User: Fold Restriction system protein from Streptacidiphilus jiangxiensis.
Amino acid sequence: MTGRRRAVLAQQYTEVAEAAEQRLDELLDLAAEPSPAVDFDALRREYTPRPLPSAAVSEPPRWADYEPDMAGLPVGHSGQPLLDASYQQRLASARLTHQRALREYRDQERTLRDRAEEVRLAYEREERDRADAVRSYNERLVEYRHAYEDGEPAAVESVLERALAAAGRLPGLEVPARVGYRPLTRTAVIDLVLPGVGVVPPALAFRVSPDESEGGVEPIPRPRAQCVERYLLLVARVALRALDAVVAADTESHLDGVVLNGRIVTAEAGETTLLSVDARRGDLYARTLLPAAHADAVARLRELPCRISDDPYGPGPVAPYGVSSPTAPLPEELSPGEFSGLAAELFAAMGLPDWDARLVGRDGLLAIAHGDGATFVEQAHVVCVARRPAVVGAEAVRNVAEVMDEEAAHAGIWATTGSFHPQAVLAAADCAGLRLIDGGELRALIREHLGAELGG
Assistant:
């Protein structure tokens, strides 16, 4: 390959890379905008009748088109043409032809009338079917809307998936999403399939290579840090747009929180979690989710309870906060925010509405609560709720007893989704006012007070 041809090829490669970078800028701009509204009124259909196809119309044969021309006939003394025998023959032949044309026209008209009637009847049937289909669709839409308003999981999931589909439908890029809705915690668990790292051009320029075995052209590598920055910016924009779409679609305020897991799929590692968000209602409404400046997008995402890979090009995935489940969720499938919210809702329903979570972690939480004066006295209660370890030991119980002393609490509750070691039960007996709630009782309380099921 000549040097000139290699230079032309390098220039072409550079133009392709620059076009890809421009396309990335366009995607970032589009992802910064709110997604189209998805509401039930917009989904309604209207029936508009189509015009009846016009029937074929023709004119009957005119005698003037068949009558022989009198030009050239001799003129008599009266000034009128003399109709000789030749003309009389032509005239008779023309009349026969005209009569034949009239008969054919009448036969054709009958056929056309029959055909027009068939077309009219078919048109009326089709229009009735169209009107019935629109009416049936709108009736189903009303039922679907009522199901959503009633908080039926399938309907809530469908509404949110529609919103996410609209948000993820960018020109030249699709961001598929799956949604699971947990009535237990009023939380949507979203699995978002993020665009791969290949969306960021690894090189913006190419040059002639001295090694012709490599095709005579080589890329000028882009700094890895710049590639990471550009990719995380796009990921942040896509994730924030998805969260914004879900919040906008939740017109009935069914959601107390959203767990969003952003995944990428590669041939080498399969499906890998790149980011996970555990946002409660207060997190989602605290500020706008779509900052105007691209530079603020990653920071805005990190302001939420969020785990995001520092190096999406590396092999290390992040652990999702929570995962979806087709059945009653297990304690370990709930995110920390969900588990904390579930505990607060349960104990509020039991008579401890004044809730102050002091520590919230992966394994559980510690809170100070005050009773409503009916079920519980209006004094401080220390509440510890945990989902790990499976068996709570005596030391953990003594630690809660110490917190009760420090807070001068009237009573304490140690609740676990697992069980207590016999020594832990003995330790609790030495602490007046400390109540133990094991997994079986905790699930029964959730069933009684919240009307929902916790798996396990």
The mean pLDDT is 90. Residues 85-149 form the longest helix (65 residues). The domain at 331-450 is CATH 3.40.1350.10 (Trna Endonuclease; Chain: A, domain 1). The first strand starts at residue 169 and ends at 170.
